[in-house]
Specification:
mainly beta, SH3 type barrels, OB fold (Dihydrolipoamide Acetyltransferase, E2P), 3 domains, 6-stranded antiparallel β-sheet, 5-stranded antiparallel β-sheet, 16 strands, flat
Length: 186
């Protein structure tokens, strides 16, 4: 199915130059002279690399039909990462390379959104904020409050992030999945 470039939406899958890509961002530009342009940031499904693509406002773009499913993370084993389909209760196993960006946030029971193209999983999206428990963290130095000090903390998934001194081992915190930073206490 083809649509005019001005009707593109973030998250759609498009076919461009023989490759499939997910639209990550769109920007409408109207230069002083000439027609309006659509600048699309597209992440290639095959390589994972992002690139900017310029479309004229009346150019037709091929949209690839996709299916988005909510899956719940169950466990990881040598065969891959196992998720449960919340409607059919079937187990779906995804490979390590497909889950690589999300694995630092996966804990049992976490709901993720998986994008499927022609029945094949392509991307795994975690929520913007996830709650994780601190499994290891040193004590903060009492009185050290200058310049918003932080300390390293290892979370239950193995991810190490910087947290404020007042956060202790055993506490649950909110983590921003976009940039892997502390977002507050849970």
């Amino acid at each position: 199915m083809a649509v005019v470039a001005t009707n593109l939406k973030k998250g759609q899958c498009i076919k461009y130059s023989g490759d499939l890509g997910i639209v990550q961002g769109l920007e409408h530009r109207t230069p002083g002279k000439g027609n309006a342009l659509i600048m699309a940031t597209v992440r290639s499904v095959s390589s994972g690399k992002q690139k900017a693509i310029r479309f004229s406002s009346d150019e037709k773009v091929d949209i690839v039909p996709t299916d988005r499913q909510k899956l719940e993370f169950s466990y990881a084993d040598p065969s891959g990462f196992n998720f449960m389909d919340l409607t059919t209760y079937e187990t779906i196993t995804l490979s390590d390379d497909l889950v690589i960006d999300a694995k630092d946030f996966l804990k049992e029971g976490l709901e993720v959104e998986v994008l499927f193209i022609d029945g094949n999983a392509v991307t795994v999206s975690v929520p913007a904020i996830v709650e994780l428990e601190i499994t290891e963290s040193s004590e903060g130095i009492k009185g050290d409050t200058a310049n918003n000090p932080t300390k390293p903390a290892i979370l239950e998934t193995g991810l190490t992030i910087q947290v404020p001194l007042f956060v202790n081992q055993g506490e649950s915190i909110k983590v921003n999945t976009e940039d892997k930073t502390y977002a507050g206490r849970a």
